[in-house]
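can u do me a favor
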């Protein structure tokens, strides 16, 4: 017997669009939980990195304020996406996962702005796939 995506969705009792939504949420939860935990577990090192990264920019005096803000958005995106997976599987409710995608989009926009202000164009460009991931996830939840 050949396993196809259709037979996999039948076996799991999910529609194809639901399976794709779950995969988007899983990816976003891994991305942002790992990123935020890195910041929390190495706060001093992360703060020093950002202070150095932004030392010649208008963001220099704001690092102590903005690091907790971006960490909050990343934590929210990761955990809302993870809890959203559970809500979809348990009750078919996609609202929490949608909020995870939205918070992820906002986190990436914040990071993108910082990279552009710091004139780290390669760093900014590296964020585009993550933004597209969150944007496609938003699209999946809003329109499918």
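np, heres the sequence
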């Amino acid at each position: 017997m050949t396993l196809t995506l259709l037979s996999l969705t039948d076996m799991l009792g999910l529609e194809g669009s639901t399976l794709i939504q779950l995969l988007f949420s899983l990816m976003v939860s891994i991305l942002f939980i790992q990123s935020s935990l890195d910041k929390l577990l190495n706060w001093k090192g992360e703060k020093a990195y950002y202070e150095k990264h932004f030392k010649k920019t208008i963001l220099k005096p704001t690092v102590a304020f903005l690091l907790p803000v971006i960490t909050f958005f990343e934590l929210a995106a990761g955990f809302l996406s993870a809890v959203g997976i559970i809500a979809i599987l348990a009750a078919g409710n996609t609202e929490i996962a949608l909020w995870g995608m939205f918070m992820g989009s906002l986190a990436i926009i914040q990071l993108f702005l910082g990279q552009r202000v710091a004139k780290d164009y390669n760093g900014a460009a590296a964020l585009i796939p993550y933004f597209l991931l969150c944007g496609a996830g938003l699209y999946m939840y809003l329109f499918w």
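The longest helix spans residues 63-91. hope that helps!!
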